[in-house]
Amino acid sequence: MNNLQELINNLNIKFELSKEIRKGETANTYLGNYQNEKSILKLFKKNHNKLITNQYLDNEINNQLINKNLFPEIYYINKKIGVLIYKYFDGIQLNKKSFKNINLIARKLKTLHSIDCHKKNKSLEDQFISYKEILKSHSKIDLINEGWNHFLNIKDKSDEQVFSHNDLNKTNILSDNVNIVFIDFEYSSMNSRYCDIARIIESFSFNDNETETFLELYGMEANSNIIKSIDEWSLTNTYIDLIWAYIVDKLYPGAIENSYIVSLEAKLDNKSYKYSNN
User: Fold this and answer.
1) Contact present, 180 and 168 (Cβ < 8 Å)
2) pLDDT in tens, 166-205
3) Nearest CA-CA partner of 33 in 83, 81, 86, 73
4) Structure pTM?
């Protein structure tokens, strides 16, 4: 905290630090006030491992996120130092699976996927390649390669690439009962729309009727091909989550519980079994 306050003073940022909210793999998050407005400050960690993160900090993307009311107003950004300050959104996680909430999420996701960005933006494939390079000597390299091959198999069948959040679970979707915003875009990239769709359906445990409603509100028909694509991406997302856990365990020993890795491996085994028997 003292080092952060020193950084704030050196940058001459009018930010009054209140407390640390969370320590993450790519950034630490703090609560405070920026020019008397309740705000969030993210201090990004130095990336020495060629991980592809924080693409949303590019002006062409973050301006659209704000203008489309997908992300809170940004007060200050310094990409070189790795500091982001944005307006505090007074909302809570969406847990109730009402039609209103499903409608809000579906329409917001459709808006997110309509963001216009240059094809030069890195893709999930680029991210995956960097993960494989970091873990090339890992004891579970066969499993990692299995995930890579599965990804390559479904990538060619996916529709066009969109700007994807890539980590849209409940904790990253906030609501104030009128609007919702998405937060924590650190892992965003160009990707198939099915990545975000599959994550939302799984995170909220939508049943068949809720899934059909969600897809229709997004603008898709819940046919057998669409459902198959969602299942394929649900498996891909689990591979990615497990591979990312391996990376965190390697780069920040002790930062992740081994029980979490074991639970992901078991989840992957279960999904792989179901997938291979469909």
Assistant:
1) no
2) 999 999 999 998 899 999 999 999 999 999 999 999 999 9
3) 86
4) 0.94
